[in-house]
């Protein structure tokens, strides 16, 4: 395919008044659909004293109630579906750590929109029709595998439905099939890079050119690491099952924040404490309303993800609002001796630090009434014990001055920490067990 290809529906470049008109029309339809067909929404709207036809302007949405993950759990499994179950042609679920899984459903039209948005997302990163797309996101109840699969097919790519795991085999196929794009979690992409190096395979010299990474928080330093070790341009992809799956927002080739697809979603930032809407540019919790979902309409869904929006123009010409890199989830924020910190901030400080490999594990314990953070990292290459102890002191000092937290640092031997196959487990929180 020629480099001039552009999969750029006009809707991505609508001016603000036209986009707002489209959103208002769709929002009215969505609210009416939710109110008419989902007892939970009817009760919640009634309790808040709002009616779908009372919405005149987009700003009026602020009077509508939020939806939270517990609402999905309380209505397990299909209670929030707004269409008869027979019209739901796909069901996904996320396991969560406790309790019932979160169940989501799609009509045929929902799947069609999802594939279309994923195709637009992949195209924005520079993936082209005809490209071989190696899909290492997990297939199954997780939305990553199938979400990418149908999007890449819609864009007319050749999709390799690899799923996660079996890393050496993955690398063989990436090379043999000449994959141009790699779709994976960033932590699994790093695992692929490392195993390739151990096998003596140079992915940097392979046709691989684009990485579409998401499903977990990652840092700019991790991006630089993945760019360099895989010889790619690594783009950030954001999404969540409750709203659709992957393809809610994507970085274009300029990689300056993720374009949120405003023709299908309405994005707000609210103060996570007061729940008041915050102005453009302010940091807070991302709240999303779906504008076109049939099976599972979501009204003001609190994502728990902390980020900022920007409406500064992007060099690509797309007018949709950009979501800045999601630093972490509200639930993942650690308070270490009074300092608020996200795992991705620690990652940003660790990755690229001389002598340290980009693998880490954070463990939280309670010592007396104080939180205690242990940071385990791996040494790069063989180092003796004294060397590692010296390195640990340097890392400890670096974390203190850069992130402002005191921690205990242990430098492990190469390969000692677990490797990711999908979403990485970065934090072990042992505080609840009273350790
Ligand atoms: O992770 C959907 C997805 C698949 C997105 C593949 C991108 C690529 P869930 O399993 O429901 O859905 O998890 C959603 O993961 O609320 C965020 O906390 C986190 N997350 C997803 N993408 C990013 C990202 C998929 N790019 C939850 N940066 C979300 C940071 C992310 N966090």
Task: List the SSEs and their pairings.
Blueprint: H1 16-37, H2 39-48, H3 69-74, E1 90-94, E2 102-106, H4 108-125, E3 132-135, H5 143-154, E4 158-161, H6 167-177, E5 181-184, H7 186-199, E6 210-214, H8 220-230, E7 233-240, E8 245-251, E9 258-260, E10 265-270, E11 284-290, E12 301-307, E13 309-310, E14 322-323, E15 328-329, E16 334-336, E17 339-341, H9 343-350, E18 356-367, E19 370-379, H10 385-402, E20 408-412, E21 427-429
Parallel strand pairs: 3-4, 3-5, 5-6, 6-7, 18-21, 19-20
Antiparallel strand pairs: 1-2, 7-8, 8-9, 9-14, 10-11, 11-12, 12-15, 13-14, 16-17, 18-19
This protein binds 5'-O-[hydroxy(phenylacetyl)phosphoryl]adenosine (DLL).
5'-O-[hydroxy(phenylacetyl)phosphoryl]adenosine (DLL) is lined by residues 94, 137, 142-144, 214-217, 236-241, 245-246, 303, 305, 326, 329.
In short:
With 435 residues, this protein is an alpha/beta fold. The chain has 2 domains: 1-331, Rossmann fold; 333-433, GMP Synthetase, Chain A, domain 3, CATH 3.30.300.30.
Task: Give an overview of the whole structure.
The chain has 435 residues and is of the alpha/beta class. It folds into two domains: 1-331, ANL, N-terminal domain (Rossmann fold, 3-Layer(aba) Sandwich), CATH 3.40.50; 333-433, GMP Synthetase, Chain A, domain 3 (2-Layer Sandwich). It is built from ten helices and 21 strands. It has helices spanning 16-37, 39-48, 69-74, 108-125, 143-154, 167-177, 186-199, 220-230, 343-350, 385-402; strands spanning 90-94, 102-106, 132-135, 158-161, 181-184, 210-214, 233-240, 245-251, 258-260, 265-270, 284-290, 301-307, 309-310, 322-323, 328-329, 334-336, 339-341, 356-367, 370-379, 408-412, 427-429. The strands form five sheets. Strands 4-3-5-6-7-8-9-14-13 form a nine-stranded mixed β-sheet, sandwiched between helices. A four-stranded antiparallel β-sheet has the order 10-11-12-15. A four-stranded mixed β-sheet has the order 20-19-18-21. The longest helix is centred in the first third of the chain and has 22 residues, at 16-37. The N and C termini lie far apart (58 Å). Bound molecules: 5'-O-[hydroxy(phenylacetyl)phosphoryl]adenosine. 5'-O-[hydroxy(phenylacetyl)phosphoryl]adenosine binds at residues 94, 137, 142-144, 214-217, 236-241, 245-246, 303, 305, 326, 329.
């Amino acid at each position: 395919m020629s480099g001039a290809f552009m999969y750029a529906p006009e809707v991505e470049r609508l001016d603000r008044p036209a986009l707002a008109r489209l959103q208002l029309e769709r929002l009215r339809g969505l609210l009416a659909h939710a109110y008419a067909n989902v007892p939970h929404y009817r009760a919640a709207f009634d309790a808040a004293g709002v009616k779908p036809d009372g919405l005149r302007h987009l700003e009026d949405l602020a009077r509508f109630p939020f939806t939270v993950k517990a609402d999905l759990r309380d209505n397990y499994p299909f209670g929030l579906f707004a269409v008869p179950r027979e019209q739901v042609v796909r069901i996904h679920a996320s396991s969560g750590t406790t309790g019932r899984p979160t169940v989501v459903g799609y009509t045929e039209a929902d799947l069609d929109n999802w594939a279309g948005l994923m195709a637009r997302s992949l195209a924005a990163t520079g993936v082209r029709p005809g490209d071989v797309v190696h899909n290492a996101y997990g297939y199954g109840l997780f939305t990553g595998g199938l979400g990418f699969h149908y999007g890449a097919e819609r864009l007319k790519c050749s999709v390799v439905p690899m799923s996660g795991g079996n890393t050496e085999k993955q690398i063989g196929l990436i090379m043999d099939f000449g994959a141009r794009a790699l779709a994976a979690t960033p932590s699994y992409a790093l695992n692929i890079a490392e195993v390739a190096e151990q096998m003596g395979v140079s992915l940097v010299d392979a046709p691989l050119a684009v990485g579409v990474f998401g499903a977990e928080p990652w840092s700019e330093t991790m991006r630089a690491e993945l760019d360099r070790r895989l010889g790619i341009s690594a783009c950030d992809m954001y999404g969540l099952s409750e709203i659709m799956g992957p393809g809610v927002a994507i970085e274009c080739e300029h990689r300056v924040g993720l374009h949120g697809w405003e023709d299908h979603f309405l994005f707000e930032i609210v103060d996570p404490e007061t729940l008041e809407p915050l102005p453009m540019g302010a940091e807070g919790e991302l709240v999303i309303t779906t504008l076109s979902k049939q099976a599972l309409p979501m009204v003001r869904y609190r994502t728990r993800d902390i980020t900022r929006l920007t409406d500064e123009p992007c060099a690509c010409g797309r007018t949709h609002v950009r979501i800045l890199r999601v630093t972490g989830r509200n639930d993942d924020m650690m308070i270490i001796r009074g300092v608020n910190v996200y795992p991705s901030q620690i990652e940003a400080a660790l990755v690229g630090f001389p002598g340290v490999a980009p693998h880490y594990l954070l463990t939280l314990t309670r010592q007396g009434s104080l939180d205690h953070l242990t940071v385990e990292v791996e040494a790069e290459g063989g180092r003796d014990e004294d060397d590692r102890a010296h390195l640990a002191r340097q890392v400890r000092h670096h974390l203190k001055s850069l992130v402002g937290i005191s921690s205990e640092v242990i430098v492990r031997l190469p390969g000692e920490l677990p490797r990711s196959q999908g979403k990485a487990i970065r934090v072990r929180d042992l505080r609840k067990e009273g350790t």
